[in-house]
Design goal:
This protein is of the alpha+beta class. It has one domain (6-191): Archaeosine Trna-guanine Transglycosylase, Chain: A, domain 4. It is built from seven helices and seven strands; from the N terminus they run αβαββαβααββαβα. Strands 1, 2, 3, 4, 5, 6 and 7 form a seven-stranded mixed β-sheet that branches. 33% of the residues are buried.
Length: 192
């Protein structure tokens, strides 16, 4: 069977992030990952934490921020017990990437989500899943290829994260997920 299917290609992409943001994303608390650069990537994106330890002040500040953000929607997030560093944590599904300006113009976006859109470009993330036991990995800059053997080995160990709120969060609720045509274009670019 030829390689290059969309799902297979998607499972091989990884993003390194500082803590506590990496764990907050993988636990479904953070739904927008802000960057100064856009991405054409859509689909599964593995998340690795950098080796830098999170300060207690940063953890406290971000937990207070996301308590407020989710509180605007009537939800209470269940924060991670630990913020491990230098490990593969799990993955999210990148539904789309929009500029903050584009995202801010969406009238139907709840206030909590609009407060997560302060970077130049916003990766719209959903479907978080975490590894039960995070695995040591050496990260790289921007989105980088995760070795196929690593993805194959740890993919089955992914555990869906309990949702924040009554219904699973999706960007399609706001019409902001990538269209089928965008996904096909992205898949073709990866194959070429």
């Amino acid at each position: 069977m030829p390689r290059g299917g969309l799902e297979e290609e998607e499972t091989l992409q990884c993003l390194s992030m500082h803590q506590p943001w990496a764990s907050l994303l993988v636990h479904g608390i953070k739904r927008v990952e802000g960057r100064s650069w856009p991405t054409q990537h859509r689909g599964r994106l593995w998340i690795a934490s950098t080796a830098q330890e999170a300060s207690p002040e940063a953890i406290q500040e971000m937990e207070a921020f996301y308590t407020y953000i989710h509180g605007l929607e009537g939800n209470v997030p269940n924060f991670p017990q630990h913020y491990p560093r230098g490990v593969l944590l799990g993955c999210v599904y990148v539904a789309n990437c929009l500029s903050a300006e584009e995202l801010q113009r969406v009238d139907t976006l709840p206030e909590g989500l609009t407060r997560e859109t302060e970077s130049d470009f916003c990766f719209l993330c959903e479907r978080p899943a975490r590894l039960i036991v995070p695995q040591q990995v050496k990260g790289q800059h921007k989105i980088w290829p995760l070795p196929a053997a690593t993805a194959k080995q740890f993919g089955p160990a992914l555990k869906p994260v309990p949702q924040v709120g009554e219904q699973p969060f999706t960007w399609s609720r706001y019409g902001l997920d990538a269209t089928e045509k965008q996904r096909e274009t992205t898949a073709r670019r990866r194959i070429l």
